């Protein structure tokens, strides 16, 4: 009877035992490229007039500093915050912070900013509707209904200032 190593006999069968370990470690990095490998010079083109520039380039203006905040240099601001979330409305636009992640929306991309209170009466819910139709939302928990009512007044005033004349 032939032993294959599966019958529990003393002979290992026709296959040698597996090698110990995993072999030598692989090289740390790929081998360097063969010597003499370098890109050659660019191909020579037929001599003739230089190609004409096809697109008009706008004139280059030098600015003397960072651009200003626009027509709302001294506008009002609004802040509502809780342990995790915040809503900021200021000269730059609207910013939402949710669990440490911030989303900034500039006024030139904002169509409208609707807001309301929750059914419980202590949560401010603010949305930003962008000119491309996308909508982003953020909620901020007030300590009580009086704080929520104060936020309504402040947010209404600030949004009225920045969105005035936009048909909102």
Protein traits:
168 residues; alpha+beta; 11% helix; four-stranded antiparallel sheet; 1 helix; 8 strands
What's the β-strand tally?
8
Q: What is the helix tally?
A: 1
Give the spatial strand order of the biggest sheet.
Answer: 1-2-3-4
Derived from helix and strand composition plus strand pairing, the structural class reads alpha+beta
Q: Termini distance?
A: 94 Å
Report the order of strands and helices.
EEEEEEEEH
The coarse overall form would be elongated
* Helical content class: 10-25%
Mean pLDDT: 76
Radius of gyration: 34 Å
Main beta-sheet strand count, sense and barrel state: 4 strands, antiparallel
**Strand percent estimate:** 25-35%
Low-pLDDT segments, ≥5 res: 50-69
What does it look like?
The protein is an alpha+beta fold. The protein is built from one helix and eight strands. It has one helix at residues 145-163; strands spanning 78-81, 85-90, 93-98, 101-106, 110-112, 115-117, 123-130, 135-141. The protein has a four-stranded antiparallel sheet, covered by helices on one side. Strands 5, 6, 7 and 8 form a four-stranded antiparallel sheet that branches. The longest helix is centred in the C-terminal third of the chain and has 19 residues, at 145-163.
Write a brief caption for the model.
The chain has 168 residues and is α+β, with helices and mostly antiparallel strands. 11% of the residues lie in helices and 26% in strands.
What's the layout of helices and strands?
Layout: E1 78-81, E2 85-90, E3 93-98, E4 101-106, E5 110-112, E6 115-117, E7 123-130, E8 135-141, H1 145-163
Antiparallel strand pairs: 1-2, 2-3, 3-4, 5-7, 6-7, 7-8
């Amino acid at each position: 009877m032939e032993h294959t190593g599966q019958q529990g006999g003393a002979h290992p069968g026709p296959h040698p035992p597996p090698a110990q370990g995993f072999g030598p470690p692989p090289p740390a990095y790929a081998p360097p490229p063969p010597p003499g490998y370098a890109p050659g010079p660019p191909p020579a083109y037929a001599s003739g007039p230089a190609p004409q520039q096809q697109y008009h380039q706008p004139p280059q203006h030098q600015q003397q500093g960072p651009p200003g905040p626009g027509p709302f240099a001294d506008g009002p601001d609004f802040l509502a915050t809780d342990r995790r979330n915040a809503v900021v409305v200021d000269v730059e636009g609207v910013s939402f912070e949710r669990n440490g992640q911030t989303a900034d929306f500039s006024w030139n991309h904002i169509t409208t900013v609707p807001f309301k209170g929750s059914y419980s009466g202590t949560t401010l819910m603010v949305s930003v509707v962008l000119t491309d139709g996308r909508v982003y939302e953020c909620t901020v928990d007030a300590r009580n209904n009086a704080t929520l009512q104060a936020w309504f007044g402040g947010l209404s005033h600030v949004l009225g200032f920045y969105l005035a004349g936009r048909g909102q």
